[in-house]
């Protein structure tokens, strides 16, 4: 399939400002169809859901369309899509009903803290899966010893937000299920970088955030609605008892939900083709992934050639995400000097609290993160490499 990068980039107004946006791992830019969908929802008028008047019915339709779109993106069903402000908030909420004192929850040093700390506050005993600090891999074999009869949940990421590591989630979930445990998969970083099938992964709960894949700041957790029906979170007495609504606190940001649907439609149209939206998404995300990894091969090779750069992690399967330090400069200084050259990168721990500790980087300010998404081009990579190369003469 032909991937027209120029056409894709033209959909993103922010890319016209002259900056190389290599900060996508912290949140992508927003395409024009998403901006228009949010604006249109406000222009047409929206009310709260469940009312007898047209503006309320528009809100009902927006919510239903959003659930269907997220389900198509990851391979779930609309009735199992919980919507909320972000993955962290939803994970805190679900953790309280999935685990408690007397349970064990297996967490990993690879994960973003949003898939660690919510489990700690349940009172369950945490058991830790360790990361190989050299390769950045999360060995599957250790889970056979970590998962036992008291394991209630195995929480694991589908991709590291700083190293890009893609652990063998399906194998980990298989071990968890054999012991009767549930699996909670953080797909926030992974969803933007390739096709997702929650059933193939073995994820009982799959969390994602739309702002990582060209949408507004909305989070979602996708699960089997039958499993959700057995869970009863604290809620306001008059709030809906239906699934998935019983897990959603307060009024949704309806216009933003319209933007989520538009973002999924945008991703489904990255390459021309027919079929259902799910089929088009699988095709588009596969081609986008190939594009990212092709660019990333050049980015990695370029950084490896620079003697003043240290790269962290070399996993066999990864997203297009690099984490590195520059000799003589703090990560923040590197980010500031690249920003002066109109190259956007992040610095610090990026909430990978346990992982930066395992890498020995947390106390020294973490490292620099540069990540590619589907709208990045070769000039973005070249500008990053040129900027980092110049830092060898620019240390002071």
UniProtKB/TrEMBL annotation:
SUPFAM superfamilies: PLP-dependent transferases (SSF53383)
Protein name: Cysteine desulfurase-like protein
Superkingdom of origin organism: Bacteria
Limits of the Aminotransferase class V domain: 21-384
Any Pfam family matching the protein: Aminotran_5
Entry-linked PANTHER family: CYSTEINE DESULFURASE (PTHR43586), PYRIDOXAL PHOSPHATE (PLP)-DEPENDENT ASPARTATE AMINOTRANSFERASE SUPERFAMILY (PTHR43586:SF21)
């Amino acid at each position: 399939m032909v991937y027209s990068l120029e056409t894709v980039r033209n959909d993103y107004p922010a890319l016209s400002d002259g900056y190389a946006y290599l900060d996508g791992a912290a949140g992508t830019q927003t395409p024009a169809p998403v901006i228009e969908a949010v604006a249109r929802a406000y222009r047409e008028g929206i009310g709260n859901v469940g009312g007898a008047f047209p503006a309320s019915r528009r809100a009902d339709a927006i919510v239903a369309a959003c659930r269907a779109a997220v389900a198509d993106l990851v391979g779930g069903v609309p009735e199992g899509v919980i919507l909320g402000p972000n993955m962290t908030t939803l994970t805190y909420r679900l953790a309280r009903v999935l685990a408690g004192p007397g349970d064990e929850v297996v967490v990993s040093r690879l994960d973003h803290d949003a898939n660690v700390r919510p489990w700690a506050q349940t009172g369950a005993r945490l058991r830790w899966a360790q990361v190989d600090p050299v390769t950045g891999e999360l060995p599957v074999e250790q889970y056979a010893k970590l998962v036992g009869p008291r394991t209630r949940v195995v929480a694991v990421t589908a991709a590291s937000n700083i190293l890009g590591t893609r652990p063998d989630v399906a194998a980990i979930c298989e071990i968890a299920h054999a012991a009767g445990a549930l699996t909670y998969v953080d797909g926030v970083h992974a969803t933007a970088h390739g096709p997702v099938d929650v059933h193939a992964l073995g994820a009982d709960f799959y969390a994602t955030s739309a702002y990582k894949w060209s949408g507004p700041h909305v989070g979602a957790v996708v699960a089997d609605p039958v499993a959700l029906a057995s869970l009863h979170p604290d809620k306001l007495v008059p709030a809906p008892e239906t699934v998935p609504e019983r897990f959603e606190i307060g009024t949704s940001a309806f216009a933003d939900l319209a933007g989520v649907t538009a973002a999924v439609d945008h991703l489904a149209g990255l390459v021309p083709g027919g079929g259902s939206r799910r089929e088009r998404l699988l095709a588009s995300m596969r081609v986008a992934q190939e594009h990212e990894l092709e660019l990333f091969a050049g980015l990695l090779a370029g950084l490896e050639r620079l003697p003043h750069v240290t790269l962290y992690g070399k996993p066999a399967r990864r997203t297009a995400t690099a984490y590195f330090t520059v000799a003589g400069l703090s990560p923040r200084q590197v980010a500031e000097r690249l920003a002066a050259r109109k190259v956007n990168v992040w610095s610090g721990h990026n909430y990978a609290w346990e992982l930066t500790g395992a890498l020995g980087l947390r106390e020294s300010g973490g490292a620099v993160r540069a990540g590619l998404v589907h709208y990045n081009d070769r000039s973005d990579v070249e500008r990053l490499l040129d900027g980092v190369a110049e830092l060898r003469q620019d240390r002071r």
